[in-house]
Amino acid sequence: MKVESFLCAAPNKSVSEDSIVLNEKINVYGVFDGATPLMPFKDESGRNGAYLASNIFKDYFFGLYRNNLSLVEGIMNANRMLREHMEKHKVNQEKYEELWSTCAAIIKIEQDGKISFAQLGDCMIIAEYQNGTIKALTRDTVKDISYRSKAWREEQRKQGVKLPDEEYYQDRTQQLIFNRSLANRENGYTVANGKKEVLNFIQHGQVNISEIKTLLLITDGLFHSKYSIEETFNKIQTIGLQVYSMELEQYEKSNNLRSDDKSGIMIQLM
Question: Are residues 81 and 123 in the same domain?
Fold first, then answer.
Protein backbone atom coordinates (compact mmCIF):
# COMPACT_ATOMS: atom_id res chain seq x y z
CA MET A 1 0.00 0.00 0.00
CA LYS A 2 0.98 3.58 -0.60
CA VAL A 3 -0.66 5.99 1.85
CA GLU A 4 -0.73 9.78 1.41
CA SER A 5 -2.33 12.00 4.03
CA PHE A 6 -2.87 15.71 4.51
CA LEU A 7 -4.38 17.95 7.18
CA CYS A 8 -4.45 21.73 7.53
CA ALA A 9 -6.53 24.29 9.40
CA ALA A 10 -8.68 26.85 7.62
CA PRO A 11 -6.99 30.27 7.20
CA ASN A 12 -9.14 31.80 9.96
CA LYS A 13 -8.38 29.09 12.56
CA SER A 14 -5.37 28.55 14.78
CA VAL A 15 -5.98 24.77 15.00
CA SER A 16 -7.82 22.33 12.78
CA GLU A 17 -11.12 20.86 13.96
CA ASP A 18 -10.44 17.95 11.57
CA SER A 19 -8.26 15.04 12.55
CA ILE A 20 -6.93 11.93 10.81
CA VAL A 21 -5.94 8.48 12.00
CA LEU A 22 -3.34 6.23 10.39
CA ASN A 23 -3.35 3.02 12.43
CA GLU A 24 -0.97 0.80 10.49
CA LYS A 25 -0.96 -1.85 13.23
CA ILE A 26 -4.42 -3.07 12.20
CA ASN A 27 -4.86 -1.17 8.91
CA VAL A 28 -7.49 1.32 10.12
CA TYR A 29 -7.53 4.73 8.43
CA GLY A 30 -9.98 7.58 8.97
CA VAL A 31 -10.79 11.27 8.75
CA PHE A 32 -12.92 13.12 11.31
CA ASP A 33 -14.52 16.54 11.03
CA GLY A 34 -15.63 18.18 14.26
CA ALA A 35 -18.75 20.33 13.86
CA THR A 36 -17.94 23.95 14.72
CA PRO A 37 -19.71 24.65 18.05
CA LEU A 38 -22.66 26.99 18.36
CA MET A 39 -21.91 27.55 22.05
CA PRO A 40 -18.71 29.14 23.43
CA PHE A 41 -17.42 26.15 25.45
CA LYS A 42 -13.65 25.78 25.95
CA ASP A 43 -11.90 23.22 28.15
CA GLU A 44 -9.04 24.01 30.54
CA SER A 45 -6.61 23.95 27.60
CA GLY A 46 -8.74 26.30 25.49
CA ARG A 47 -9.99 23.57 23.13
CA ASN A 48 -13.56 23.69 21.79
CA GLY A 49 -16.09 20.87 21.39
CA ALA A 50 -15.38 20.33 17.67
CA TYR A 51 -11.66 19.81 18.26
CA LEU A 52 -12.34 17.54 21.24
CA ALA A 53 -14.93 15.42 19.41
CA SER A 54 -12.80 14.72 16.34
CA ASN A 55 -9.71 14.03 18.47
CA ILE A 56 -11.54 11.70 20.85
CA PHE A 57 -12.41 9.63 17.77
CA LYS A 58 -8.89 9.88 16.35
CA ASP A 59 -7.30 8.82 19.65
CA TYR A 60 -9.73 5.92 20.04
CA PHE A 61 -9.08 4.47 16.57
CA PHE A 62 -5.33 5.09 16.81
CA GLY A 63 -5.24 3.17 20.09
CA LEU A 64 -7.05 0.15 18.66
CA TYR A 65 -5.00 -3.03 18.47
CA ARG A 66 -7.78 -5.64 18.24
CA ASN A 67 -8.41 -6.88 14.72
CA ASN A 68 -11.77 -8.46 15.48
CA LEU A 69 -13.61 -5.24 16.35
CA SER A 70 -16.01 -3.96 13.69
CA LEU A 71 -15.94 -0.31 12.63
CA VAL A 72 -19.54 0.11 13.79
CA GLU A 73 -18.59 -1.19 17.25
CA GLY A 74 -15.60 1.15 17.20
CA ILE A 75 -17.76 4.16 16.37
CA MET A 76 -20.16 3.30 19.19
CA ASN A 77 -17.29 2.90 21.67
CA ALA A 78 -15.76 6.25 20.64
CA ASN A 79 -19.24 7.82 20.77
CA ARG A 80 -19.63 6.57 24.35
CA MET A 81 -16.27 8.09 25.26
CA LEU A 82 -17.46 11.36 23.71
CA ARG A 83 -20.59 11.26 25.88
CA GLU A 84 -18.49 10.59 29.00
CA HIS A 85 -16.20 13.54 28.22
CA MET A 86 -19.23 15.82 27.88
CA GLU A 87 -20.62 14.54 31.19
CA LYS A 88 -17.29 15.30 32.85
CA HIS A 89 -17.43 18.88 31.52
CA LYS A 90 -21.08 19.33 32.57
CA VAL A 91 -22.35 19.80 28.99
CA ASN A 92 -26.16 19.94 28.84
CA GLN A 93 -26.76 16.94 26.59
CA GLU A 94 -30.49 17.62 26.31
CA LYS A 95 -29.68 20.64 24.12
CA TYR A 96 -28.46 19.43 20.72
CA GLU A 97 -26.75 22.74 20.00
CA GLU A 98 -24.48 22.22 23.02
CA LEU A 99 -23.34 18.71 22.06
CA TRP A 100 -19.82 18.14 20.82
CA SER A 101 -20.04 16.30 17.53
CA THR A 102 -17.98 14.93 14.66
CA CYS A 103 -18.49 13.46 11.22
CA ALA A 104 -16.37 10.45 10.28
CA ALA A 105 -15.15 8.32 7.39
CA ILE A 106 -13.18 5.19 8.33
CA ILE A 107 -11.91 2.14 6.48
CA LYS A 108 -10.35 -1.08 7.74
CA ILE A 109 -8.47 -3.57 5.59
CA GLU A 110 -9.58 -6.92 6.93
CA GLN A 111 -7.62 -10.17 6.93
CA ASP A 112 -10.23 -11.98 4.82
CA GLY A 113 -9.68 -10.00 1.62
CA LYS A 114 -12.36 -7.41 2.37
CA ILE A 115 -12.27 -3.68 3.08
CA SER A 116 -14.81 -2.51 5.66
CA PHE A 117 -16.01 1.08 5.71
CA ALA A 118 -18.17 3.23 7.97
CA GLN A 119 -19.31 6.84 7.65
CA LEU A 120 -21.21 9.66 9.36
CA GLY A 121 -22.17 13.09 8.04
CA ASP A 122 -20.34 14.70 5.13
CA CYS A 123 -16.98 12.98 5.33
CA MET A 124 -16.74 10.88 2.18
CA ILE A 125 -15.14 7.65 0.98
CA ILE A 126 -14.55 7.34 -2.77
CA ALA A 127 -13.22 4.20 -4.45
CA GLU A 128 -11.48 3.63 -7.76
CA TYR A 129 -12.16 0.09 -8.95
CA GLN A 130 -9.72 -2.02 -10.95
CA ASN A 131 -11.85 -1.48 -14.07
CA GLY A 132 -11.43 2.31 -13.75
CA THR A 133 -14.88 3.04 -12.33
CA ILE A 134 -14.89 5.78 -9.67
CA LYS A 135 -17.70 5.54 -7.15
CA ALA A 136 -18.58 7.12 -3.81
CA LEU A 137 -19.13 4.38 -1.24
CA THR A 138 -20.95 6.81 1.05
CA ARG A 139 -23.66 9.46 0.90
CA ASP A 140 -23.30 13.03 2.18
CA THR A 141 -26.16 13.35 4.68
CA VAL A 142 -25.41 16.99 5.54
CA LYS A 143 -26.05 18.16 1.97
CA ASP A 144 -29.28 20.21 1.72
CA ILE A 145 -29.96 19.91 5.49
CA SER A 146 -31.25 23.50 5.65
CA TYR A 147 -33.73 22.76 2.84
CA ARG A 148 -34.91 19.57 4.60
CA SER A 149 -35.16 21.45 7.90
CA LYS A 150 -37.45 24.04 6.31
CA ALA A 151 -39.64 21.31 4.78
CA TRP A 152 -39.81 19.58 8.17
CA ARG A 153 -40.89 22.81 9.89
CA GLU A 154 -43.60 23.37 7.26
CA GLU A 155 -44.93 19.86 7.86
CA GLN A 156 -44.90 20.42 11.63
CA ARG A 157 -46.88 23.66 11.28
CA LYS A 158 -49.49 21.83 9.17
CA GLN A 159 -49.89 19.41 12.07
CA GLY A 160 -50.55 22.28 14.47
CA VAL A 161 -47.10 22.50 16.07
CA LYS A 162 -46.28 26.10 17.02
CA LEU A 163 -42.95 27.17 15.55
CA PRO A 164 -41.55 30.65 14.82
CA ASP A 165 -42.08 32.07 11.32
CA GLU A 166 -39.42 31.34 8.68
CA GLU A 167 -38.10 34.88 9.08
CA TYR A 168 -36.79 33.77 12.50
CA TYR A 169 -34.70 31.04 10.82
CA GLN A 170 -33.12 33.48 8.39
CA ASP A 171 -30.84 34.25 11.31
CA ARG A 172 -27.88 31.92 10.63
CA THR A 173 -27.43 30.93 14.28
CA GLN A 174 -31.10 30.00 14.73
CA GLN A 175 -31.00 28.04 11.49
CA LEU A 176 -27.96 26.07 12.65
CA ILE A 177 -29.46 25.42 16.10
CA PHE A 178 -32.55 23.94 14.44
CA ASN A 179 -30.45 21.89 12.02
CA ARG A 180 -28.56 20.34 14.95
CA SER A 181 -31.88 19.18 16.42
CA LEU A 182 -32.25 16.88 13.38
CA ALA A 183 -29.06 14.95 14.16
CA ASN A 184 -29.57 11.20 13.72
CA ARG A 185 -33.23 11.52 12.79
CA GLU A 186 -35.11 10.52 9.66
CA ASN A 187 -34.63 13.21 6.97
CA GLY A 188 -31.97 14.81 9.17
CA TYR A 189 -28.24 14.14 9.05
CA THR A 190 -25.84 11.72 10.71
CA VAL A 191 -23.18 12.62 13.25
CA ALA A 192 -21.44 11.24 16.33
CA ASN A 193 -22.67 13.44 19.20
CA GLY A 194 -22.69 11.10 22.18
CA LYS A 195 -26.31 10.04 21.61
CA LYS A 196 -27.05 6.31 21.28
CA GLU A 197 -29.33 6.89 18.26
CA VAL A 198 -26.26 7.21 16.04
CA LEU A 199 -26.16 3.40 15.87
CA ASN A 200 -29.22 3.39 13.58
CA PHE A 201 -27.69 5.83 11.09
CA ILE A 202 -24.10 4.69 10.49
CA GLN A 203 -23.51 3.98 6.80
CA HIS A 204 -21.34 0.89 6.60
CA GLY A 205 -20.44 -1.96 4.29
CA GLN A 206 -17.67 -3.97 2.68
CA VAL A 207 -15.97 -4.22 -0.71
CA ASN A 208 -13.59 -6.87 -2.02
CA ILE A 209 -9.98 -5.72 -1.83
CA SER A 210 -9.28 -7.47 -5.15
CA GLU A 211 -11.71 -5.09 -6.90
CA ILE A 212 -10.24 -1.85 -5.48
CA LYS A 213 -7.31 0.11 -6.86
CA THR A 214 -7.50 3.34 -4.80
CA LEU A 215 -9.46 4.70 -1.84
CA LEU A 216 -9.86 8.36 -0.94
CA LEU A 217 -11.19 9.59 2.42
CA ILE A 218 -11.90 13.33 2.70
CA THR A 219 -13.61 15.87 4.92
CA ASP A 220 -15.97 18.39 3.34
CA GLY A 221 -13.26 21.07 3.36
CA LEU A 222 -11.88 19.37 0.23
CA PHE A 223 -15.17 19.63 -1.68
CA HIS A 224 -14.90 21.95 -4.69
CA SER A 225 -17.93 24.07 -5.59
CA LYS A 226 -17.47 23.29 -9.29
CA TYR A 227 -16.46 19.62 -9.14
CA SER A 228 -18.48 16.47 -8.63
CA ILE A 229 -17.11 14.04 -6.06
CA GLU A 230 -15.69 11.94 -8.92
CA GLU A 231 -13.99 14.98 -10.46
CA THR A 232 -12.55 15.83 -7.05
CA PHE A 233 -11.13 12.31 -6.84
CA ASN A 234 -9.53 12.61 -10.29
CA LYS A 235 -7.99 15.97 -9.45
CA ILE A 236 -6.53 14.77 -6.16
CA GLN A 237 -5.21 11.61 -7.77
CA THR A 238 -3.49 13.68 -10.46
CA ILE A 239 -1.83 16.41 -8.37
CA GLY A 240 -1.91 15.01 -4.82
CA LEU A 241 -3.71 16.07 -1.66
CA GLN A 242 -1.41 18.91 -0.66
CA VAL A 243 -1.28 20.69 -4.04
CA TYR A 244 -5.03 20.21 -4.53
CA SER A 245 -5.71 21.69 -1.07
CA MET A 246 -3.51 24.71 -1.74
CA GLU A 247 -5.14 25.32 -5.13
CA LEU A 248 -8.63 24.95 -3.62
CA GLU A 249 -7.84 27.40 -0.83
CA GLN A 250 -6.61 29.93 -3.40
CA TYR A 251 -9.77 29.42 -5.48
CA GLU A 252 -11.96 29.94 -2.39
CA LYS A 253 -10.06 33.12 -1.49
CA SER A 254 -10.36 34.51 -5.04
CA ASN A 255 -14.11 33.83 -5.13
CA ASN A 256 -14.91 35.00 -1.58
CA LEU A 257 -15.97 31.48 -0.60
CA ARG A 258 -15.81 30.10 2.93
CA SER A 259 -12.68 28.03 3.45
CA ASP A 260 -12.85 25.08 5.85
CA ASP A 261 -10.31 22.77 7.49
CA LYS A 262 -9.00 20.32 4.92
CA SER A 263 -7.95 16.73 5.48
CA GLY A 264 -7.72 13.58 3.44
CA ILE A 265 -6.11 10.17 3.07
CA MET A 266 -5.41 8.51 -0.27
CA ILE A 267 -4.60 4.78 -0.21
CA GLN A 268 -3.27 3.08 -3.31
CA LEU A 269 -3.41 -0.69 -3.18
CA MET A 270 -0.38 -2.03 -5.00
Answer: yes
Q: Are residues 203 and 107 in the same domain?
A: yes
113 close to 209: Cβ distance less than 8 angstroms: yes
Cα–Cα distance between 151 and 188 in angstroms, integer? 11
When divided into structural domains, the chain yields a total of 2
The residue type at 49: G
pLDDT tens digits, 155-202: 999 999 999 999 999 999 999 999 999 999 998 999 999 999 999 999
**Cβ 267 vs Cβ 237: under 8 Å:** no
